[in-house]
Structure formats: structure tokens, C-alpha cells
Amino acid sequence: MLSAVHSDRSGRLVVAADYAAAMSDGASVGPLAQTIRLPAGTEVVQLPGRTSVGLDRTGRARELGTGRFGVGAIVPIGYLRMALPAYEEDLAAPPLKSRAYAAVGADADGELVVSAVALDPDAGAADGRATPDLLARITATQRDHPSSRVLRQLARCAKDYRCRAAANAFLGRHDCALPVAASRNERPPEVLVLSDDADASPTEPAAFRPAPEELAEAGARHLEGGGTVVAFGRACEGEPLLAVRLIEAAISAIRQRTRVGSIHLETNGSVPTALRRLCDAGLDSVAVRLASARAETYEVLHRPEGFRFADVRASIAVSIAAKVSVALRVLTLPGLTDRARELDALVGLAGDLPPESSLILCGLASDPQRTLRIADGADAPVGMERMLDRLRTDAAHLRIVALPRPLVRL
User: Fold this and answer.
1) Which of 1, 50, 179, 330 is deepest in the core (most CB within 10 A)?
2) Domain boundaries along the sequence of the chain
3) 134-402: CATH homologous superfamily?
4) Residue 349 φ then ψ, to 5°
């Protein structure tokens, strides 16, 4: 039997051996299931103001008592959460910090377990190379390029906000995010954020609007120096399609200097005509981010300004027609994404994608219970395991992966 785990007032984790571990599927509370030992890199956090819930000897859900707060786990890259923490909601308490919380318990050895699955074969694996001292690399790079405003901004993102994609600009590997200071055209409810890197997102906009030449210099330098991808529109940015002229010119300038590597775009797909221009300029891949494939739910969660879900579908069609690599980045929430109608809509949208496209399942960073109330629906969830089974069957032509939280810790 798995035991309940809670946090005391000091933040210390406590195993409540007299209660069985519980989880929420978004609609009801039941025994914790689909668990694995806590993967390396998992963070376990307190849920302040939320009383932890466990199962008594009869299997009934019970509050563990005053001062016994719920806890949740944030799983690392390659894993997908399968259930939410079970806790008693306090409507008077402030919303939880928007994170992708997963249910936690303890096994017979007292080891923590989490309700999650590994979607990638190498989930949690190390890079295989020793990571050089990042701060030293940043200092050296800025000394060699003292006038680069782009590198100055990326240094700040890497140091102050622990952004992996910014750090890569100095490590000379993998993907590098290029800041464009784009504006936003979504105003989601305060209980959620529509980004994958919620904890790495800055609390203020980029300090400047770069010129295309500045972006091209940093981008080409990364690709020529061992990096594989330069990306526009990472989580801390606004919507890059609203800065189409800047990015279009930057892509053209990068490709005039080098043909190596890939140029990638992360977008909400709000402006199909802008996306077509970027594809024509030399874009190699695009990931369209969404919290729901149903128009009704999409409108509630994204609160789009100046566009509708039909524009998102049109952008996907533009990408397919341009023959760039396409991915759907789906922000999942147990109790919402696994509702029957939501799943039907997701399968339908995935069916439009050509073979070898990707379905990237990420955790929706949110206060889960309050988000579920906002996205209220009549149909009950079928469960995340059945959702995955359905996707693997009805979207078998796609590569299904998980990408919840790509961060670097200094």
C-alpha cells in the first residue's frame, strides 16, 4: 500500500503511514495509481493553504488535519504527469503558483513515488557531456562580443531566470532561444500560464527590441559554433507572429550566412499569413501551442485577442502546405485533456498532421482545481492512461513525446 505524504508548517515532508495515498483525476479522489519512483530532477513542493487528503482504512477520502498541507511533484523532461494531488480546496486562499503539479505518495520503503509515466526512452538521461561552468562561459562570450545586446539579454535570462535555451547560447549546443520582445495576444485567466517554462519566465519584458542583424549574428554564431537549432517564440516571449517583419528579416540574414542547423518557431498560430511569410523566408520547423483542441475550451483558456481557433487551424494547414516540420504542443491537465470530447477533438486535429510530425504533451502550469472550474464541462474524464492509449492508436502516425520543463539549474 502507498502511504499519504503531506507537508507540515515548516515545509518538511511527512509520511502519514496511517493513511493511504490519494490522487485526483480532476473529478473525484481515489487511490494513487500509475506511479514510478521519483525521477532524478523532480521537485516536490508544498501546496500552501490546501489541506492534504488521504484515504482511511475503509477507503474513504479524509482530510489529514489542520497544518498538514498537500504536496505536488513537478516531473522533469521526458515524463508526463498522470494525476493531480488530492487536497481540500480553500476558496479564500490565493491561487497556487502556476505549475504542473502531480500526485505524490510513499511506497513501503518510505521512498517517494509520483503519478507519472516516461514517454521518452531516454527520459531523465544525462546529456552525456560534462557541462562547463556556465558563468565562466557567459563572461568569456560577453568579453568577446561586448556590443551584442542579444547576448546581453540571453545572459540575463540564463543567470536570473535559469533558462536552458538561453544558456545554450553560451554552451554552444542544442537549441538557442532568440529574444524578439514580441507583444501578446492572449490574456489567460490568472490561475494558469500558457507556457512550458513557467518557472523560467521573466516578470518583465525584454529590455530592447533587437534589429534583424543582431538576431542573425547571434543565431548564426550559435549554429556555426556547434548548436543545432535557433528558436523564436520561447515561453518568456509574447507571440512571435506579431513580430513577423523582424523575424522574417532575421531568418533571411541567418540563411545568407549559414545553411547549417534548423530555424524553429514556437507559436500560438494566431496569424496564418504571417506564418506563411516565415515559412517562405526559410523556417524549418514550427510547434503550435494549445491547451485544448476544442474551440469552446480554447476560447475560455487562451482568451485570444484578435484571432480565433479557426486561425490556429489555418496556421497548421499553412505549415503542412509549406512542408516544414510540424508539432502540436499540447498543454495537458488531468481532468480536462482526458475528457471524451476534448480527446475526440485532439485526435481529429492530430489526424490532419502528416506522418513523422510530433505530438508534444506538456504539463499545463496552473492552479489545477481552479482551472478545471473555469473549463467546466459535462463529460467526465476517461483517465490519462486511456487518453494515451487512444492517442497511440488513433494518432499512430505521430511521434508522441513529453516536454514539461526544460530548465538549467545554476
Assistant:
1) 179
2) 3-118, 134-402
3) Aldolase class I (3.20.20.70)
4) -65, -40
